[in-house]
Write a structure and sequence with these properties.
alpha/beta; Rossmann fold; 7-stranded parallel sheet; 7 helices
Length: about 240
């Protein structure tokens, strides 16, 4: 990554779950953090926690809104640019999960807006703030690669994100573009997908972070990865 200045990451949906867990790991490695989330109270709590160890900017809002994406650009410029963008924010859609033939199209449109179009919108908005060699991680799902009954809405949005990521990697070879399946995790979204069920057998988000760190710190080519297939990198000194 950038060796002349401190490394700076934008992580969307960073007030909880995988986004917050990755932010903690990067903050512990000396990264400065720009984070967003829709829940202002949770986002502020995360900011206060992370600010004890590194520089943090938190911008409340939804990545689906153009004015919020512009606010992220302004914050990125004020921080000095970006070395990493992690498009982690997403929504499940309806729960219980309906079949495609019964899926209200207005809600499906929202799922695609947040899960597919917004990640591209974030990248379009902040592209002028990307430093040379910047990396992009788009968080996807096995539901974007496999057909599971009841997962058609969410899975289709992630499948579109995967293909969009692959095209971006071809069009922008100067960047490293990764689309990453983090695996099933014990998160609020996973619980939302299985209302009333015990999901304690799912792994915590912490188990997916080492694979993401490998993509951030090593020289893997652009492509699709499963977080659990990547070796954990050695703990590096704080980024310079």
């Amino acid at each position: 990554m950038n060796s002349s200045t401190v490394s700076i990451a934008l992580i969307t949906g960073a007030s909880r779950g995988l986004g917050l867990t990755l932010a903690r790991a990067l903050g512990g490695r000396g990264w400065h953090l720009l984070m967003d989330g829709r829940n202002g109270e949770a986002l502020e709590a995360a900011r206060r926690e992370l600010a004890e160890g590194t520089t943090v900017r938190a911008v409340r809002g939804s990545v689906a809104e153009p004015q919020h994406r512009y606010a992220l650009l302004q914050a990125a410029r004020e921080m000095g640019g970006l070395d990493l963008v992690v498009n982690n924010a997403s929504i499940l859609g309806l729960s219980p999960r309906p079949s495609l033939l019964n899926y209200p199209l207005a809600i499906l449109e929202e799922v695609f807006l947040v899960n597919t179009l917004a990640p591209l919108g974030v990248l379009q908005a902040v592209q002028s703030a990307l430093r040379p060699g910047a990396r992009v991680i788009n968080i996807t799902s096995d539901a974007g690669a496999e057909a599971y009954a009841g997962w058609g809405g969410y899975g289709a949005s992630k499948a579109a994100l995967e293909h969009m990521s692959a095209v971006l990697a071809e069009e922008a070879p100067e960047m490293r573009v990764y689309w990453v399946d983090p695996g099933d995790m014990n998160t609020d979204m996973q619980q939302e997908a299985f209302p009333g069920e015990d999901i304690s057998d799912r792994l915590p988000p912490e188990d997916s972070v080492p694979g993401l760190l490998a993509l951030i710190e090593k020289d893997y080519p652009s492509g699709r990865y499963h977080a659990h297939d990547l070796p954990e990198p050695q703990r590096a000194s704080a980024a310079l």
